[in-house]
Every structure is written in structure tokens, then in C-alpha cells.
Amino acid sequence: MKKILITGGAGYIGSHVVKALGEEGYELLIYDNLSTGNEWALLSGRLVQGELADRAALDRVLTEFKPDAVIHFAASIVVSESMAKPLAYYRNNTATALNLLEALQDHGVERFIFSSTAAVYGIPEVIPVNEHAPLAPINPYGTSKMMTELLLRDLAAANPSFRYVALRYFNVAGADGGNRIGQAYKNPTHLITRALKTASGIYPELQIFGTDYATPDGTCVRDYIHVDDLASAHLLALESLLAGGDSAVFNCGYGRGYSVREVVDMARKVTGVHFTVTEAPGRDGDPPALIADSSLIQRTLGWKPRHDDLEYIVGTAWAWEKKITGK
Fold first, then answer.
1. Which residues pair with 166 in a beta bridge?
2. Which among 9, 98, 152, 300 could bridge 30 via Cys, Cβ 3.0 to 4.6 Å?
3. Measured between alpha carbons, how far is 124 from 269 in angstroms, rounded to an integer?
4. Residues with catalytic roles
């Protein structure tokens, strides 16, 4: 079976992809500095702890493991933090990706899957947004991811044997259906996770950031995709590349949006807890609405989402939250 190197594979999304690939029999090596990931979340593969900025360490891993493909997750992902620390985001998200790609070129690794984001679109003129929309990010997080996409585009143009797939995630949520892994960030910023931690009593209240957006109820609208469906998209992208498929960029979402207030209502329904919600000003870098047109990945790779159900998404996240808090 093929060998796959996964950077940042001990994190939330990475660990679910590790689970999916392990179940298919791939030989996996996870390269992660464990700054936000957890070794216990790895249900398959072997972990090497290291930094993407450490070229010597990358060379050792690539020489020893000789991967057939690389899936690159490792990145900083908090929009508000990127607004305050832009240079840190360009260094951690773009400069390290460049370092990784240079190492892969030197070692002849020419199949690459990139964890990108809907943040590259900024505030789209057309909703749902498709992959041909202009890239106009409004925060350093989105810009740092866009810059890596441009690196991949130009590398593939210069080296036709190099093939990549960039997956633009919308809002990833939920947990493993078997309740084995889920989100475990020290300081989570995801709305659903924050809501559930408020329901469990960890936080005294949930803040809604912005109530005057140009949306039906004034709060931000997002397309929530279950992490297991996102993992299946990675598996299909990998199979395509290993079979000789062309480079491509795909949205990963369900094509429907839920407002912050709608998510709060669902979290209250699932948990049975009418937790406290307060309103705060909107945050810089947050677009009013982001909803995916994911028809391209469905047509091209045959991706078929199985969990397009907000109650299921929140329900799996709540089961995981109860497990890790012991409540």
C-alpha cells in the first residue's frame, strides 16, 4: 500500500483523515510539532515530532520514509489572531509551506494535497461561491493560505509531473461518529465548540460577535461540514492523484448556510441547556456569509456527503464534549 506523509496530522481535521486513511490500509507517517495536536488522537500511523521550518529534519523523514504523497494540514487557523499577528501567520502558513515544497521537490515527491480554506474568497459577490470566484481574502489567515495555493499553481505550471489538490474547507465541525476523536483545542474559537462548552458549564456565556450583518437575522452565516465528510474528500483526492489525476481546486461544504443564532438554537436543542448568550461587536476579518458551491468535487471525484445535517453535526460534537469533560 502507498506511503503517505501527513503534516499536522495530530490536529482536529488531520486526525480524522489519519483515521480514514488508516482504515483503507495506507502506511502513514505523521509529522507534527504537537503545538495544537495530540498524540492520543492518532488512531493509525507513526508519529515523528518536528517542525516544518526544520529542513534537516524534513530531509531525514523524507529520506527514510519515501512517501508517495503528502497531505499538508499544519497551519495556524484563527482569523482574529491573524489580524493581530499577521507576520506569524505568513511565517507559519506560507513560509513553512515553501520550505516543505522545496524539500519535496529535492526528494522527488510529486503528489500533494493542501488544506486550504474558504477564507481565500473574502466577501464573495455571489453566494454560494464556486472555485472560479476571485480570490480576495480580507484577513492574513486567508491571504497566507491563498499565497500557498499560488505557490502550488506556479510549481505545477513549471513542473508538469507535480500534481496537487487544494481543498477549500468551509466551517468544519462535529466529531468522529464512533466518539473516538474530536476537537481538543486548549482555547477553541469554533462556534459550535464554544457553544457546547458553554452548555457544559466550562464557559459562563457564549458571545455572538456582530448582530448587524446583511444577513436574515443579522448574524454571520456559515456552511458547516462534518469532519468525517471532509475526511472522505481527502481520501478521494488522494486516490485521484495516485491514479494520475490532474491538479485541481475543490470547495468542501454542503451548499447551505446557518446563522450564528440558528447554531445557538441547535446547540440548545441538542444539549437541553438554555445557556446564556451575549452580544458583542463584529470582528474585523469576518465576512457576513460564506456558503459553498461544492458541485465540482461531486462531479469530478464522486464525493457524496453523508452527514449534511446540523443536528447530527452538533450531536456528534456534544457526545465528544461529554466524553472529554466527563459530564
1. 114, 249
2. 9
3. 31
4. 141
pTM (2 d.p.): 0.96
CB of 90 closer than 8 Å to CB of 140: yes
The pLDDT of residue 327:
67
Give me the count of residues in the chain: 327
Under a CB-based contact definition with an 8 Å cutoff, are residues 175 and 182 in contact? yes
User: At 178, phi and psi to the nearest 5?
Assistant: -85, 0
Q: Using CA atoms, how far apart are residues 272 and 249, in angstroms rounded to an integer?
A: 40
pLDDT score recorded for residue 224: 98
Show the 3-state SS of the chain. CCEEEEECCCCHHHHHHHHHHHHCCCEEEEEECCCCCCHHHCCCCEEEECCCCCHHHHHHHHHHHCCCEEEECCCCCCHHHHHHCHHHHHHHHHHHHHHHHHHHHHCCCCEEEEEEEHHHHCCCCCCCECCCCCCCCCCHHHHHHHHHHHHHHHHHHHCCCCEEEEEEECEEECCCCCCCCCCCCCCCCCHHHHHHHHHCCCCCCEEEECCCCCCCCCCCEECEEEHHHHHHHHHHHHHHHHCCCCCEEEEECCCCCEEHHHHHHHHHHHHCCCCCEEEECCCCCCCCEECECCHHHHHHHCCCCCCCCHHHHHHHHHHHHHHHHCC
> What domains, with CATH codes, occur in the chain?
3-173+224-252 (3.40.50.720), 191-222+255-325 (3.90.25.10)
Torsion sign (Cα): 21, 38, 99, 118: positive
**Rounded distance between C-alpha atoms, residue 110 and residue 161, angstroms:** 7
Q: What is the pLDDT of residues 131-177, one digit of tens each?
A: 999 999 999 999 999 999 999 999 999 999 999 999 999 999 999 99
Q: Cα(212)–Cα(215) distance, rounded to whole angstroms?
A: 8
d(CA 230, CA 236): 10
Give residue 187's pLDDT band: very low, low, confident or very high (50, 70, 90).
Answer: confident
Beta-bridge mates of residue 277: 206
